[in-house]
Amino acid sequence: MRRLLNLVPPGTLAVGAGLALLGLASYVHLAVAGHSLTGADYSSLSVLWSIVFTLGIGVFLPVEQEIARVVATRRSQGLPPGPVLTRGTALAAGALALMVVVLLAGHDLLADRLFAGDAAMVWVLIGSLAAMAVAYTTRGVLSGLQLFGWYGGQLGVDGGLRIAMVALLGLTGVTSPLWYGLVLVIAPLVGVLLTLPPVLRAVGGGVPVAWGALLRGLGLLTVSSLLSQVVVNIGVINVRLLDPSDVATAGALLSALVLVRIPLFVFASLQASLLPGLATSASTGDLGGFHNLLRRALGIVTALGVLGAVGAVALGPWLVGALFDASDVLGHGDFAWLAGATLAYLWAMVLGQGLLALDRHRAQAVAWTIGVAALLAVTLAPMSIALRVELAYAVGSVVVAATMALLLRRGTPPHPTPTRPLDEAVATGASGGIR
C-alpha cells in the first residue's frame, strides 16, 4: 500500500477524496430535488445548475490555476504568497462584478425566460457565482502552497454540507426550488470559512505582484475553460431557451448528463498527473515519451467512456426515473448520443492537456471556439429539441477533439520546448465544479 501511495502525486488522495464527496453530493442534491420538486421547478433548478457551473468553472477555475501557478513559483523562490492573493482576489472580484452587472441588466428577461418568472432565482444565481469566486480564489492559494489537506478539506466540507442540507430539505418536505438553489451558495462559503486559517496567514507581506504575472496566460485559459463548459452544459439551457414550456426535457436532460458524465470524475484524477508528465516530456524534448503518454491517456479515457456508455445506454432511461424522478422523455437512443458525446469530450480534454504542455494556449482556445461554433449551428437545425441539443453536444465535442488532434499533429516541433519555465507551464488545481 505504501509503495502504491508513493506512485501518485502529492496531495492526490486528499484532493481526490474531497472531489469524490463533492461528486456524491451532486447526485444526492439532484436526486432529492427531483423527488421533491414539480417538473417545472426541477427544470428551473436544472437551468440554474447549468448556468452556475458553466460560468463558475469557466471563469473562476482559470483564476484559481493562475493564482496557484504564481504562488507555487514564488514559494520555490522563498517569496510570500500575500501579493498574489491580493491580485487574484481583485481579478475574481472584477470578473464577478462584470457578471453581476450583466445579470442584473437582464434580470426580468432571465427570470421570465429561464426561471418561469421566479425573480428570486436570479439572485440565487448571483449568490452562487459569488460563492464560487471566493472558493476558487482561496483554493488557488491552498494549491500553490501545496496545502492539499486543506484543499481537499474545503471540497469535502462543501460536499458534506450539501448532502446534509438537501437531506434536511427532503425530510422536512420543502418544495421550493429556491432553497435547493441556496445550497449552492451556503455550502461553498462554509467550506471556505472552515479552511480559511492558512489563507489568512498568507495575507500581506512582500512587494506587489505585477499584473502581467497573472494576466499573461489568463485570457486564453479563460476562453478555453469557459467554452469547454459551454459545450458540456449548454444543452439544458438551450432546451429552456428554445421552448420555455418544455420543462420535462430540461430536467430529464440534466439528470441524464449527470449519469453519462461519470467518466469525467475519473479524468479529474488522471489530469493531476497527466499535464505535469506531458510538460516534462515536452521540456526535455522527449517527443516519443510525449506521444506515448498522450496515447496511453487517450486509451484510458476511451475505455472509461465506452464502459460508461454501455451502462448509460442500457440502464439510463430507468436510472433517471428511479434516481431523479425525471420524466420519461429520453430513450436509449438519447443516452447513446449523450454517451458518445461524452467520450469525444474526454478525448478533447486529453488532447487539450497536450496543447497546454506545449504552451499552445492559443491553439487550445481556437479548437474550443470552432467546436462551440459547430455546436451552435447544430442547435439551430430544424429537428426536435431533444435531438438537436444531444447532436450539438456530440458534434461540438467531436469537432473540438478533431481540431486539437490536427493542431497537435501539424504543430508539434521535433524537439518541443515550452516558451515558459516548466513550473509556469503546469497549471495546478482541480475543478471543484461537478459536471
From TrEMBL:
Membrane topology: Multi-pass membrane protein
Domain of life of the source: Bacteria
Transmembrane segments: 46-63, 84-107, 119-136, 209-232, 252-276, 297-320, 335-358, 365-385, 391-408
Keyword DNA repair: no
Location in the cell: Cell membrane
Family matches, as InterPro entries: Poly_Biosynth_Transport
Gene Ontology CC, one term: plasma membrane
Disordered: annotated segments: 412-435
Alphabetical keyword list: Cell membrane, Membrane, Transmembrane, Transmembrane helix
UniProt-recorded name of the protein: Membrane protein involved in the export of O-antigen and teichoic acid
Organism of origin: Micromonospora halophytica
Lineage: Bacteria, Bacillati, Actinomycetota, Actinomycetes, Micromonosporales
